[in-house]
Amino acid sequence: MNPRASVRSPRPGDVFAVPLGDGRFAAVRVLRTSEQDGVSSALVAVTPWIGGRVPELSEPMLREILKRHRGHFGGGPAVSWYDGMPPRDFLYLGVLPPADHELALDPQGAYGGQWNGSMARDVVLERGPDASTGRVGGRATEKPAPLGDHVAGDMAEKDFWEAIALLDWDAKTDEAIVAPLVEHLKRLPPVQIAGFHKQMSEKLFSIGRSSRVRSVSTPTARKRASPPIISWMFGARWWQVVRKPTAA
Predict the structure, then answer these.
(1) Which of 165, 158, 155, 166 minimizes the C-alpha distance to 189?
(2) Could you give the 3-state DSSP secondary structure of residue 183?
(3) Backbone angles phi, psi at 12, to 5 degrees
(4) How many Å apart are CA 71 and CA 197, to the nearest integer?
(5) Nearest of 84, 79, 37 to residue 217 by alpha carbon
(6) For residue 76, pLDDT beyond 60
(7) In sequence order, which residues have a C-beta less than 8 Å from that of residue 177 and are 6 or more positions away?
(8) Are 90 and 5 in contact (CB under 8 A)?
(9) pLDDT, tens only, 87-103
(10) What is the rounded CA–CA span in Å between residue 174 and residue 115?
């Protein structure tokens, strides 16, 4: 087993362990791939596995797809398209070929930009922040207990644009521009942070997966076009950054 993400483009069945930034790992599996205008894309499924160690490829839960029960998802599968290559800290586990019904899954327009370290966050949101290896209620795909008073992925349009309005366009660097927004998101519960991410992802996808959208998903073009919010959104660690509690 190659302990690091492969240098080749992802292929159907490839399985990767994803570090969550807190000592635990999640896992994702590639269902199918596409090549368009020189950009490699992969339809990636989040598995229900989570634990404090890198799983063996023989782990049965790696063959499952996490069901999302929060908010509008209604038990749908956690799948989304991603462009490019897995981050270097993703651990390649091997190949588990997708079943016919998995190959036929419709992601319903879900697009997450570049591969990134937050793409497996659904397993934390569905199973709870303290989840570890094992199944919730005896089944990994059962509806979990509610996570607080807010529904993930359901941030109101008004709240989203109020958050966007915090961007400091007079600042000199991308980091400084997004700093007020980051501080605001840090104060929100994880489910509302996920709601912001959902709103942003849907608005970016509504533009269409055109060469323009893809161009701002690459480091070089991000700097050239200078859209700091997109640069930050597709950063590998945005989820870990905003979920850290602010100092009292």
Answers:
(1) 155
(2) helix
(3) -55, 130
(4) 14
(5) 84
(6) yes
(7) 167, 168, 169, 171, 228, 229
(8) yes
(9) 999 999 999 999 999 99
(10) 21
- The mean of the pLDDT values for the chain is 74
Beta bridge partners of 26: 18, 50
Report how far apart the first and last C-alpha atoms of the chain are (Å, whole number): 44
Both tokens of 105, joined, read: 């899954």
- Beta carbons of 241 and 121 less than 8 angstroms apart: no
**Cα-only R_g, the chain:** 18
Give CA–CA dist 140/206, Å, rounded.
32
The helix/strand/coil state of 149 is coil
pLDDT for the residue 217: 40
Question: How much of the chain is in helix, strand and coil states, percent to nearest 5?
Answer: 35, 20, 45
Burial 95-128 (b: 16+ CB within 10 A, else e): ebebeeebeebebeebbbbbbbbbbbbbbbbbbe
Least-confidence region, from 40-44, 94-98, 217-221? 217-221
SS3 (DSSP) at 213:
helix
Residue partners of 78: CB distance under 8 A and separation at least 6: 45, 46, 65, 66, 67, 68, 122, 123, 126
CA–CA dist 169, 164 (Å, integer)? 11
- Kindly compute the dihedral angle of the four CA atoms of residues 240, 246, 191, 133, in this order, to the nearest 10 degrees: 50
**Backbone angles phi and psi of 187, in degrees to 5:** -85, -10
Handedness of CA 110, 113, 115, 120 (dihedral sign): negative
Query: Which of the 8 DSSP states describes residue 90?
Result: S
